[in-house]
Amino acid sequence: MVREVLVACSDRSMSLGITVWDMNTGDRLLHIPTCASPFHGLLCLRNQFLVASQAHKHGSFGGGAIFLWPLNKPQSPLRSYPIEAIGPISSTKDGLYLVGGALSGNAYVWEIMSGRLLKTWRAHPKALNCLAFSGDDSLLISGSCDGVIRIWSMISLLDVTDSGSLPSFIHCWSEHHSSITGFLTTGSSSSVLVSSSMDGTCKVWDLISGRLCHTQAFPTSVTAIALDSEKQILFSGIADGRIFVNILNVGLGLENSAVISEGPSMVLRGHKGSITALTFSFSGSLLISASEDCTVCLWDVSDWVITRRFNYQKGRITNLVVIPQSSLVSVVENHQRVCYGLRVPVLDKYPQPVNSSSGTVTLLPTYCSIEDGNMTTFRSTHSLNQQILDLEQGRTPEALQMKVEMSVENRMWATRMAKHVTEMNRHLQSRLLDLVQYRLSLSSDPDFSTTERRKKLKLTVHNHLRRNN
Questions:
Q1: Keywords assigned by UniProt (predicted)?
Q2: Has residue 369 been placed in a domain?
């Protein structure tokens, strides 16, 4: 069983920093000073780095800051200073790209291993509050303080040949009436999105068709959301400190009026202030909640009792992240610390020309033994091509291996993108044809009222989708 540690930070003061607790013993393992991160501003990159945008800029004049700590040497952050303050951040699961959102509504995409700023554009008219990726990293989801959600294609965002034009969103939803507070993706191929808002609702969306499927209403503002390990139960933390537990409803709504429900919910009570963050342990056996009351609670999901409570000094907790304890310090048999991980440069402040000599970056891990003192690293395509040229003069096997690795990685990325586009088209065509067929059959039946037709349409489409999934 993997031992887990809990990482928490606040946005109130740089001196509060980041605190790391052992979830099994409750011991405080580590304190990382000089960090104040806003909501959705902290993440763990490939279980090797902590990355945090800074609510209180440090050492930057007129701009923002993003700090990065190697988990095997957490006291020495790498400091990057974007052109403006960054709030929410998110990364792709493979650790290749980092996105950040600003108060101006601008969004930024960096290539992590080169530090290159690939794209910057005006994503929203208002400040960005949330950023997330779809399950296969093909879509970027952005939410703003005015309740608007937009869906972007990563293919278009990473198209450096089209850098002069502004990217176009795939979907734009304005059904929320207040600030967006959270995103979750689930469903087959992660095609379902759950959003939460200060308007007191959680909404379920179909990312492929853009349809609003379901709306769950709550007594007050929804401030944080989480899904269980099976992606079937939704946990919604609200402003009065309660956590509501509901079965996730992914049924399709009809036309422009999605089903709004206030059905029975199980309610967890353990905080005295607004819920600020929710997450789950890797095993799924613990729900973890943070609150304005400066406490963190660990809930046993088998009987919903609090098994442990952490006190976080004097600041509200804005972010919770669970990581393996082994990520903090890697130890070999002789108990020596091993320097492992990625070499990450400072993030660019401004976009670089497409024909920049730095070249594009491809993810190319080089696996070496610990005894050799080497580590897994990532190099730019430009430097790799130069190494290949040098090696080819001697026609060594290493040169051929490097060429194969580059080709495989590029083909894998292209295959993933093509597969996702094909799947989106297939689902969309199937749903449109079925809906048209059912509507035609119902419109020709004089025995059904409009309400009955809608009910029958909803039932048949829901059953059809359930069979397909």
A1: Repeat, WD repeat
A2: no
Across the strands, what pairs with 70? 49
For residue range 320-358, what is the model confidence (pLDDT) as tens digits?
A: 999 998 888 643 333 344 444 456 889 998 887 655 444
Q: What digits encode the pLDDT tens for the residues 384-397? A: 555 555 554 545 55
Let me know if residue 343 belongs to a domain: no
* Same domain (yes/no): 274, 401: no
Residues 394, 247, single domain; the answer is: no
Which H/E stretch holds residue 418? helix 397-443
Looking at the structure, do residues 311 and 403 belong to the same domain, yes or no?
Answer: no
User: CATH code at 42?
Assistant: 2.130.10.10
Question: How would you classify residue 409: left for phi > 0, otherwise alpha for psi between -120 and 50, otherwise beta?
Answer: alpha
- Whether residue 354 is contained in a domain is answered as no
Residue 79: both structure tokens together: 């400091």
Q: Are both 322 and 405 inside the same structural domain? A: no
Residue pair 176/129 in contact (Cβ under 8 Å)? The answer is no
- Local structure of residue 285 (DSSP, 8 states): S
Where does residue 218 rank: exposed (0-12), middle (13-18), buried (19+ CB within 10 A)? buried
Residue 446 has pLDDT above 90, yes or no: no
SS3 content of the chain, % helix, strand, coil (to 5): 20, 35, 45
Mean pLDDT, rounded, of the chain: 79
**CA torsion sign, 172 to 175 to 181 to 186?**
negative
Q: How many domains does the chain have?
A: 2
User: What is d(CA 440, CA 438) in angstroms, rounded to the nearest whole number?
Assistant: 5
pTM, 2 dp:
0.73
On whether the CB atoms of residues 294 and 312 are closer than 8 A, the answer is yes
| 321 and 466, same domain (yes or no) | no
Match 């292209």 to its residue by tokens. Answer: 414
Q: Per the domain annotation, does 341 fall within a domain?
A: no
> What is the domain extent for residue 297?
4-327
